[in-house]
Recover the amino acids of this structure.
């Protein structure tokens, strides 16, 4: 921190000097900093990007499907073929169904036809991806992919040839992963990485707003933030692993008492998971503390009349408290009211899914490898 105070002081001094200088050729900012041995530090911290001022952030709208999933429209190929995809921060590959997929999971979805694209390039390398609720197999190829008005050329993506039966019930055709390349199947370069490398974005970040109660307005902003969707300060939390968007969680508390994640744990911010997911014992304790009971299907249900009096739940992330009220963690439908918590055996890696993200506008910054959270409005 001290060395940057010195650098900033030097820059301020140089700026003040400029105001007092006559308009004649003098030393450049680079020469001024080189004399003081500071140029290399400043160059690395503030890389020269002359075209940045001409680049604007790009907004991709998403559809809210009953608060269960969020998806938007992209296109692939020349001329473009349109597909709906889940923008998933819990995975890193892009894939869509292909005309060769005849399995049940591909039914009722748009299918990519390579023969109709003049820019399609066949790779042929096999691809296999497993998700929490399904899987796909297929092959890799490359083509032009358009997302939010941005065209990414020669993007490697998957074309499915088989999909698990559950995929047939997905509203979206495919998935566009927004996690890190380190977890990408076959080490494929993710779409967002190529947006950055091709200079399509003013900043190497994207941000997500998820609407509530099936309302419109959900969006992913590539290259910046939408200040109209949050209020107050942004709290920045450093990543503990640049694989998923993984951070440190200190505890989960209700009325000041720790009910889960005792002693600390790890959590990922995942737009592709609708619930807050944790170890079975912790989730059971949370449900018990809020007055939920299991129905015949093992779902944690509550009396809808009790929502107003149910306690808030606080997730402390790297020393910062983020509170989720009952109105956010309980879902209401014609079948009754259920809590938005899911269990996953003894795995200590928590997933803070859409139940959490709806409450907090989320910024994903790859340059500083941090997540920014601010109260959604």
């Amino acid at each position: 921190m001290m060395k940057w105070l010195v650098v900033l002081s030097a820059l301020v001094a140089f700026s003040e000097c400029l105001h007092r200088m006559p308009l004649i050729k003098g030393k450049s900012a680079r020469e001024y900093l080189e004399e003081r041995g500071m140029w290399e530090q400043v160059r690395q911290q503030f890389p020269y990007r002359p075209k940045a001022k001409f680049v604007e952030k790009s907004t991709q709208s998403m559809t809210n499907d009953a608060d269960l999933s969020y998806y938007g429209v992209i296109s692939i190929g020349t001329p473009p073929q349109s597909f709906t995809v889940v923008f998933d921060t819990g995975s890193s590959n892009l894939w869509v169904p292909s005309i060769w997929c005849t399995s049940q999971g591909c039914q009722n979805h748009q299918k990519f036809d390579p023969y109709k694209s003049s820019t399609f390039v066949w790779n042929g390398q096999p691809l296999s991806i497993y998700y929490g609720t399904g899987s796909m197999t297929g092959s890799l190829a490359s083509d032009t992919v358009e997302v939010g008005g941005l065209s990414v050329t020669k993007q490697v993506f998957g074309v499915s040839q088989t999909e698990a039966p559950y995929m047939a019930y997905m509203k979206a055709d495919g998935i566009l992963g927004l996690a890190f390349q380190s977890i990408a199947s076959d080490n494929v370069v993710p779409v967002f990485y190529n947006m950055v490398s091709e200079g399509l974005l003013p900043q190497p970040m994207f941000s997500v707003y998820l609407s509530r109660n099936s309302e419109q307005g959900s969006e992913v902003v590539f290259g910046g933030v939408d200040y109209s969707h949050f209020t107050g300060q942004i709290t920045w939390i450093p990543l503990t692993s640049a694989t998923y968007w993984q951070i440190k969680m200190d505890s989960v508390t209700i009325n000041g008492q720790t009910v889960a994640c005792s002693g600390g744990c790890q959590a990922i911010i995942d737009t592709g998971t609708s619930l807050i997911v944790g170890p079975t014992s912790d989730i059971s304790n949370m449900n018990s503390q809020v007055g939920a009971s299991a129905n015949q299907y093992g779902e944690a249900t509550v009396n809808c009349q009790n929502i107003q009096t149910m306690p808030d739940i606080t997730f402390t992330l790297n020393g910062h408290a983020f509170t989720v009220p009952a109105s956010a963690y309980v879902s209401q439908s014609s079948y009754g009211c259920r809590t938005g918590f899911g269990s996953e055996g003894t795995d200590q890696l928590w997933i803070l899914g859409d139940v959490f993200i709806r409450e907090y506008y989320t910024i994903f910054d790859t340059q500083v490898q941090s997540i920014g959270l601010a109260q959604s409005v």
Q: What stands out?
A: Helices lie at 2-20, 29-35, 39-45, 191-197, 280-289, 326-329, 354-357.
